[in-house]
C-alpha cells in the first residue's frame, strides 16, 4: 500500500495510475507553499467532486491541531492539484457553514473514518473546496 512520500512519488511518476485509487477511495495530490519555508509541499488526499470543484478533508486523523497543509493554504490559498495525469492550478477555501452538511456527508460516505476522526477532537474538521483558476 502506498503512503506518504512513496505515494506522492509513484503517483507523479505514473500519472496517477498508481496512487489515484487507494483503499477503496480516490486520491489527488495537493501542493501547497510552506508558510514558513516557502517550499512546495505535496500531500496525497482523499477527494470527491462537487460540481466542477474538488473537496478534501483537513482531518489529520482526528488530531486536535490542523494538518500542516491546511495551515499552509490558509497563508496562501493558491495551490497545484494533480488528479490522475491532469495537473492544474486551484484556489483553496474552507467550505462555508451552508455547504458543510452536504459536503461532510459526501466525504464521510467515501471514508467513514472521518466521522470517527470528528468524534476524537473538539475542533471542527475543515472541509476544503479546491476551485480551478
UniProtKB/TrEMBL annotation:
<protein>
    <submittedName>
        <fullName>Deazaflavin-dependent nitroreductase</fullName>
        <ecNumber>1.-.-.-</ecNumber>
    </submittedName>
</protein>
<dbReference type="GO" id="GO:0070967">
    <property type="term" value="F:coenzyme F420 binding"/>
</dbReference>
<comment type="similarity">
    <text>Belongs to the F420H(2)-dependent quinone reductase family.</text>
</comment>
<keyword id="KW-0560">Oxidoreductase</keyword>
<dbReference type="InterPro" id="IPR004378">
    <property type="entry name" value="F420H2_quin_Rdtase"/>
</dbReference>
<dbReference type="InterPro" id="IPR012349">
    <property type="entry name" value="Split_barrel_FMN-bd"/>
</dbReference>
<dbReference type="Pfam" id="PF04075">
    <property type="entry name" value="F420H2_quin_red"/>
</dbReference>
<dbReference type="GO" id="GO:0005886">
    <property type="term" value="C:plasma membrane"/>
</dbReference>
<dbReference type="GO" id="GO:0016491">
    <property type="term" value="F:oxidoreductase activity"/>
</dbReference>
Amino acid at each position: 500500500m502506498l503512503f506518504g512520500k512513496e505515494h506522492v512519488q509513484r503517483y507523479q511518476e505514473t500519472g496517477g495510475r498508481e496512487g489515484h485509487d487507494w483503499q477503496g477511495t480516490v486520491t489527488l495530490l495537493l501542493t501547497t507553499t510552506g508558510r514558513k519555508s516557502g517550499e512546495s509541499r505535496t500531500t496525497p488526499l482523499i477527494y470527491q467532486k462537487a460540481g466542477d470543484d474538488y473537496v478534501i478533508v483537513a482531518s489529520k486523523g482526528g488530531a486536535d491541531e490542523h494538518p500542516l497543509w491546511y495551515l499552509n493554504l490558509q497563508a496562501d490559498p493558491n495551490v497545484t492539484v494533480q488528479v490522475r495525469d491532469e495537473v492544474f492550478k486551484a484556489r483553496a477555501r474552507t467550505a462555508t457553514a451552508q455547504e458543510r452538511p452536504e459536503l461532510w456527508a459526501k466525504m464521510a460516505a467515501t471514508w467513514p473514518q472521518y466521522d470517527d476522526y470528528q468524534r476524537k477532537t473538539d475542533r471542527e474538521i475543515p472541509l476544503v473546496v479546491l476551485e480551478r483558476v
